[in-house]
């Protein structure tokens, strides 16, 4: 993530990340790793890496501001797409992985689908790469801010 890349977070996701950051910092402070315990050193390094990741996310976060309701696919928008090869439809939040948003699936802007769909307008087809090397066509059907999203009746 570049330092200037702004990321969208809901207030609850921001709070969860703040809580996780505090917990990790407390664990680092209270569990001193000895150089002879390789497992503990690895755990501490993993915690430090997660602390840095959360810190970067929070530093670049735009919190609680819904993007404009202009139908353009961007972070903070709930997108409905159709996978054109199968006709299957999916609704997900374009946001930050690791920050939960209830039952709504989250795709990162940095994921192959996220990168392909950013900036699309309803009816626009884009292609994204899959592990086989193929480029799969997907069409944006709708994009609404998370705050305006009405979950489908289950």
UniProtKB/TrEMBL annotation:
InterPro entries hit by this protein: TF_GreA/GreB_CS, Tscrpt_elong_fac_GreA/B_C
Keyword terms of this UniProt record: Elongation factor, Protein biosynthesis
Transcription elongation factor GreA/GreB C-terminal domain sequence ranges: 70-140
GO molecular function: translation elongation factor activity
Record lineage: Bacteria, Bacillati, Actinomycetota, Actinomycetes, Mycobacteriales
Superkingdom of the source species: Bacteria
UniProt name for this protein: Transcription elongation factor GreAB
């Amino acid at each position: 993530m570049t330092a200037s890349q702004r990321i969208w977070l809901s207030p609850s996701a921001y709070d969860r990340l703040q809580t996780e950051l505090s917990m990790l910092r407390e664990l680092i402070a209270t569990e001193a790793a000895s150089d002879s315990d390789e497992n503990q050193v690895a755990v501490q390094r993993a915690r430090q890496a997660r602390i840095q990741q959360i810190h970067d996310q929070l530093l670049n976060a735009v919190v609680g501001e819904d993007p404009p309701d202009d139908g353009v696919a961007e972070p903070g928008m709930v997108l409905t797409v159709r996978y054109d090869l199968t006709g299957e439809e999916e609704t997900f939040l374009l946001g930050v992985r690791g920050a939960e948003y209830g039952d709504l699936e989250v795709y990162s802007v940095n994921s192959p689908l996220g990168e392909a769909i950013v900036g699309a307008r309803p009816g626009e087809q884009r292609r994204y790469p899959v592990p086989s090397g193929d480029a799969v066509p997907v069409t944006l059907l709708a994009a609404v801010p998370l705050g305006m999203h009405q979950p489908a009746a289950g």
